[in-house]
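The authors assume throughout that readers already know how a fold can be written as discrete tokens. The format is easy to grasp once an entry is in front of the reader. For illustration, here is how one protein appears when written out as sequence plus structure tokens:
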Amino acid sequence: MKKINLSSIVLFLALTAAMFSCFDDAGTDILLKGTFIEIQEATTSAGLSVSKSYERLNDGIAKKDSIRINLVGAQRSTPVTVNFAINSASTAVAGVHYTMVTTGTSVTIPANSSFAYIRFNVIADNIEPGEVWNLRFDLTGVDAGNVTISENYKTFTRQIRTLCPFNRANFLGNYSCVEPGYVGSPYVVVSTPGPDANSITITNFWDFGGVVNYTFNPATNAVTLATQNVVMGGVTYVVSQNGTATYDACEYSFVVPYRVATTGGVTVETNTHTFTKL
């Protein structure tokens, strides 16, 4: 058996270790260099333009919002002032769709801190569902030495939309009912709470004293007029839905195509009721 020279093995291992120590560790040489300013919302995977829906409650109360300005790098011992501007390409109009809470055109990151906020309010009551208004913020400068504005994250656009949550209470009260082709249209009906949380009961259906239940589906923005027997003028009729029925949770209106038939199944009328809150 050949003898293994222990000193040769030690020498080989030492040379191998020295050789590999000359190469950089690929996982440790990526470092952030310098200190810079960025818009937090622009750094997410959603991108530089992000949509946000604000609840429109028709209550006259503006909805608060803000964007965050980050100081990336070592904190400073003195405050850092960051200048910004609303880009002229914005379609949102000041005083109509939004108001600024932050005064002037700058925000200050306090000493020994890493962020500040540009604050604004959205006037949701002035925005119709389906409308989209763009509000673009640009960072334009910074007053601190050795601090720069990030080229990749110096601009951000908030796409302003509104939504109106369903609230049955908004659909209670007096309504004007339009019934095309009927000489007595429009006429007044009264909406009261229905048998379940998302339903209402309408009196004076067909302008003939009928009492009918409607159910709202917030998930689909639809209204259901279930088939039901309704006594009108002392006669029992069968009332049912006759097409797609929808509602507007912002305006508290709803539109329902319907069919009135005899209990024997003979159609008396098909038409559409449009209910508008008075």
Observations:
- The longest strand covers residues 267-277.
- The radius of gyration is 33 Å.
- The chain has two domains: 35-163, 168-277.
